[in-house]
Automatic annotation (TrEMBL), chain A:
It is found in: Cytoplasm. Its main location: cytoplasm. It comes from Apiospora rasikravindrae. Belongs to the MAK10 family. It holds the Pfam family TPR_NAA35. Keywords: Cytoplasm. This is Uncharacterized protein. It comes from the Eukaryota. The keyword ATP-binding does not apply.
TrEMBL record, chain B:
Keywords: Acyltransferase, Transferase. This is Ribosomal-protein-alanine N-acetyltransferase. Pfam families: Acetyltransf_1. InterPro entries: Acyl_CoA_acyltransferase, GNAT_dom, NAA30-like.
């Protein structure tokens, strides 16, 4: 040690030949000036961002201040007052929620000295997990520590469950959630029942101490232990998807009730900030620089937990399956909640939906897919008759049908199930993933049209001639795919509005494109309807006509009706807003930035990038788009008249939709959310109508000169409008200064 | 808008400087000091070097030279010292910097020659004078001269001033990135297209002929963007 270097480590393993390279290294680095690095081609931006500088206190977690100790010196065996136990528990609740919100365990729960002490031995049985370093007899330990110990055990086991639920499903690590436990074992080796038993026993022991603890404080501690039990129960129950959903909800309801007490009881707690330290990060298996403890207020924590328990309860209703269209509405409206359910709830929902490839614990994927086809395009169709599967004669058309339909299912299942999963992602990801999904559906549509061709031979289907001329064959499978693709394209544009992606002077164009997509969907719905009605008429005349068949056809026709109405509302409302924004731009009330480095064509290209490779509907050319949006040949008065009618039409459409029941609108099990959504659209349409009227009146009296109009145009802040997908401008008189 | 905030004149003359690798010792500490002020977590020196070694020609700095007038008539010596020490990390003479890269970006079809604005900072006392805009323009011009197809960047969703700056120049928000930054904030990806890659589509079919008949298309699906730089890593 006299030369200042530590001695080389003693290596004795037959496979290791130790070489001292100290001198070689020391002479090699002498050729580099200080700060210089040796970089090879594999040193990418990722490596450079992950690199740390030793001895920089902001990056080097082992870098100590003068006189600072490496380890935290807090003694976990110290005595704690009951209000301090409560304080630590409430702080742990805040940290647990911060983890749910997306911060890593290293900045949240694992900053607790108590948690660190409890997890010291990764394989210890529950009985020997204590805060005491030596195996002092429990009688000697501080009086109220056992409450904290049981709470921590319950919390950690619960966190383990959460991590497993999340990891099993689609989520984005670091973006949504951090599952990294830094090699800490969160009691995965201990049965949940054992932890629950400990919590129960702790509650009983706490009651024994009733003379030593103020009543309200004892109750506060007791209810927190109860919460941990309820949480573990919820985790035990939710994989039992075959059970009655209402019984699976029980622990969630219980937790929400408990939370209400917590809010009041928090005032009793005495914080122990020194029981949490970033120094704990040094012991974790990580190269991360030291990062601060995440501080979430108790009020925010409370609000998030309350919402989480409500969402957890509501998620169980997804198991009440009625039909796939209602299921899709359930998932899409549930995930559109603001604030959106936490990633834990979103992944749990995915588990409820698809765990082990069994849909909702009961159904095969085939069942869901066939149900969907039966509603959308093929009511009581021969293709979907399960009896086809029993025919083994290859020349029998029914055998052919079975084979072709199975090919279809193989091809379509993944795209179809992905739709449900996509909606369980964060909103930014929903939009981004849909941009990829439509490419898949575009290919799917082309592929299954080939199957349609083969099936129409098996079924001996004739092409259809109407007053419009020959409209070809029904092509049910590709029609089905096309309908979904169109709806997803609309969602992409609508989520663009929701996520505040478009600038004010883009709104006219984006609403025009939305109108174009919705109109295409309405027309496509009309085409499907024509073929369903042809089958309906034929089936009614057939001797095998039955009540079941009638029910199936009625349901299909109802579906097409509500789809077309929904598409028509979107088309009209979007058209109206397009005209309104075009007028506002012409008047200079919505300004266009100068944009010296860009031109309209280039921006159109960026905007339409997700759609450029889609075969159908074809992307309008830039010139067509510009002309359709700006409508240079239409006067301002005419445009506003047109907008007034279109928005009025949309308003009536939404009214009609809002009067329909859950069966008619395929929103069984989620009608309240579905209706709230429609009401939001309706309200937006009403206010859009007001804006148009205001502008019409101002122009009537003041003319078309923007300065004379004395109007101020305000766009709602993101999330502050009546509906996130409808950006309705507010026109108010400009106050003369 | 921009002019309205220019309440005061700048207390000196601005000098725009191209970064030079040979002067790293002089420049880099000042650059780090300026950029670190706006970051919750520091970048390691390798992040700066990653960009500056490879794309020194896409990095511009602004320094301010205090004019004799603003320093008063008797402070010539002070002023001289100031100039000599220009870009010292502690003296505040470096007031703005932009750091970029430009390379082929292959995770897209078709591949593009993509410029990327990695860092942009202007000292808070000097904001509102168009300095950031000038820096961004210089960077775009330099990337454009080197045949960039597009320029992209990310900006925090709460940074409305930055978004206004870029959007005024012609950038569009192409997507929103959930919880992109370490502080939990989301970001927008901003894109400026310099060259078109789109082949003009054939004229639009009349809407009423739209049928379920599929048009088979080529073109693979675009894969996810890599996340080039963010303090999150």
């Amino acid at each position: 040690m006299d030369d200042g270097f530590p001695p080389p480590p003693s290596m004795s393993h037959p496979g290791i030949v130790a070489l001292d390279i100290t001198d070689k290294f020391a002479s090699a680095v002498k050729t580099l000036p200080p700060g210089q690095i040796v970089k090879d081609g594999h040193f990418t931006l990722f490596e450079s961002v992950s690199a740390l500088e030793i001895m920089d206190p902001k990056m080097d977690s082992g870098c100590l201040e003068e006189g600072e100790s490496l380890d935290e010196e807090y003694d976990t065996a110290r005595d704690l007052l009951p209000e301090e136990v409560l304080g630590i528990i409430d702080q742990l609740l805040c940290l647990e929620m911060a983890w749910h919100l997306g911060y890593p365990l290293s900045q949240t729960i694992l900053t607790s000295v108590y948690v660190e002490a409890l997890l010291r031995d990764p394989n210890a049985p529950l009985s020997s997990m204590t805060f005491l370093r030596d195996s002092a007899s429990p009688a000697k330990q501080p009086k109220f520590l056992f409450v904290l110990r049981a709470y921590c055990a319950g919390m950690l086991r619960g966190c383990h469950c959460v991590n497993e639920v999340v990891k099993d499903e689609l989520y984005y690590e670091e973006e949504d959630f951090v599952t990294n436990t830094y090699d800490r074992n969160f009691l995965s080796h201990i049965e949940m029942a054992e932890v629950i038993a400990l919590l129960q026993a702790t509650r009983a022991d706490l009651r024994e101490l009733s003379n030593d603890v103020p009543k309200d404080l004892a109750l506060a501690l007791d209810l927190r232990l109860e919460l941990r039990i309820a949480f573990l129960r919820a985790m035990e129950l939710f994989p039992l998807r075959k059970s009655n959903p209402d019984s699976l909800k029980m622990p969630w309801i219980q937790m929400k009730e408990l939370m209400k007490h917590f809010k009041k009881q928090h005032a009793l707690a005495k914080a122990v900030p020194e029981a949490f330290s970033t120094k704990m990060q040094r012991r974790l298996a990580s190269t991360m620089p030291p990062r601060p403890i995440v501080h979430l207020s108790f009020d925010d924590t409370y609000t998030h937990f309350e919402q989480m328990f409500q969402d957890g309860k509501d998620a169980m209703d997804v198991l009440k399956y009625v039909d796939p269209q209602s299921l899709l509405h359930f998932v899409s409206t549930f995930q559109a909640r603001n604030p959106q359910p936490l990633v834990f709830i979103r992944t749990m929902t995915q588990g409820l939906l698809f765990k082990d490839m069994i849909v909702l614990g009961h159904h095969s994927i085939r069942r869901i897919l066939d149900d969907d086809l039966a509603i959308v395009v093929l009511p009581s169709a021969r293709q979907l008759d399960p009896a086809n599967d029993t025919i083994e004669v290859p020349t029998d058309p029914r055998h052919q049908l079975a084979v072709q339909m199975e090919t279809f299912r193989q091809r379509a299942a993944e795209c179809y199930l992905d739709l449900f999963r996509i909606f369980c992602q964060n909103r930014c990801r929903v939009r981004r993933t849909l941009c990829h999904s439509i490419q898949q559906w575009d290919h799917l549509q082309a592929d299954v049209e080939e199957i349609d061709g083969l099936l129409q031979v098996c079924l001996d289907e004739k092409s259809l001639t109407t007053a419009m001329g020959n409209i070809g064959h029904s092509l049910p499978l590709s029609s089905w795919a096309y309908l979904y693709k169109l709806r997803q394209m609309e969602w992409i544009v609508q989520l663009g509005f929701e996520l505040d992606v478009y600038q004010p002077d883009e709104l006219a164009g984006m609403y025009w494109y939305l109108n174009y997509l919705a109109k295409t969907r309405a027309q496509h719905g009309d085409r499907i309807k024509t073929f369903v009605l042809r089958e309906f008429t034929a089936a009614q005349e057939s001797p095998s006509w039955s009540q079941t068949k009638e029910r199936n056809f009625t349901r299909s026709i109802a579906y097409i009706r509500v789809t077309m109405l929904d598409a028509a509302c979107t088309w009209e409302f979007a058209d109206g807003l397009c005209c309104l924004y075009t007028v506002l731009q012409r008047l200079g009330l919505v300004k266009t930035p100068s944009r010296p480095y860009s031109n309209d064509e280039h921006r159109y290209e960026i905007r339409m990038k997700p759609f450029v490779n889609i075969g159908l509907p074809q992307l309008p050319s830039f010139d067509d788009f510009t002309k359709a949006t700006a409508q240079p040949e239409t006067s301002i008065t005419e445009l506003l008249k047109y907008a007034e009618n279109a928005v009025g039409g949309a308003k009536k459409g939404y009214e009609a939709l809002s009067r329909m029941n859950d069966l008619q609108t395929f929103s069984v099990g989620c009608h309240d959310r579905w209706l709230a959504n429609i009401k939001g659209c309706q309200k937006s349409a009403i206010f859009a109508g007001l804006a148009i009227t205001t502008l019409q009146k101002a122009i009537e009296t003041e003319g078309e000169n923007a300065a004379d109009l004395k109007l101020k145009v305000e766009l709602p802040q993101p999330g502050k409008g009546y509906h996130d997908w409808w950006i309705v401008p507010k026109l108010t008189p400009k106050i003369e200064s | 808008m921009e002019t309205a905030t220019r309440a005061t004149e700048l207390p000196g003359e601005l000098r725009y400087i191209q970064y030079e690798h040979a002067l790293e010792e002089q420049y880099l500490p000042a650059i780090r000091a300026l950029i670190s002020k706006d970051l919750s977590e520091p970048y390691s020196i390798y992040v700066y070097r990653y960009f500056l070694y490879q794309w020194a020609h896409l990095c511009y700095m602004v320094s301010i030279l205090c004019s004799a007038l603003s320093l008063g008539p008797n402070l010539d010596l002070e002023c001289l010292l100031h100039i000599r020490r220009a870009l010292h990390p502690d003296d505040g003479s470096l007031i703005g910097v932009i750091i970029c890269k430009l390379e082929h970006h292959a995770s897209h079809s078709p591949a593009t020659h993509r410029g990327y604005i990695a860092m942009l900072a202007v000292s808070s006392a000097y904001r509102g004078h168009g300095i950031a805009t000038a820096l961004v323009k210089m960077a775009i011009d330099a990337m454009s001269d080197r045949n960039a197809d597009e320029v992209v960047l990310e900006t925090e969703e709460t940074n409305t001033a930055a978004m206004r700056l870029y959007e005024r120049l012609g950038f569009l928000r192409s997507k929103k990135l959930h919880r992109y930054y370490l502080n939990g904030n989301s970001a927008y990806r901003l894109v400026l297209l310099l060259k078109s890659s789109m082949r003009p589509p054939p004229p639009l079919l009349p809407l009423d002929s739209a049928s379920a008949a599929a048009v088979t298309t080529g073109g693979g699906s675009a894969t996810e963007d890599a996340r080039p730089v963010s303090p999150t890593h």
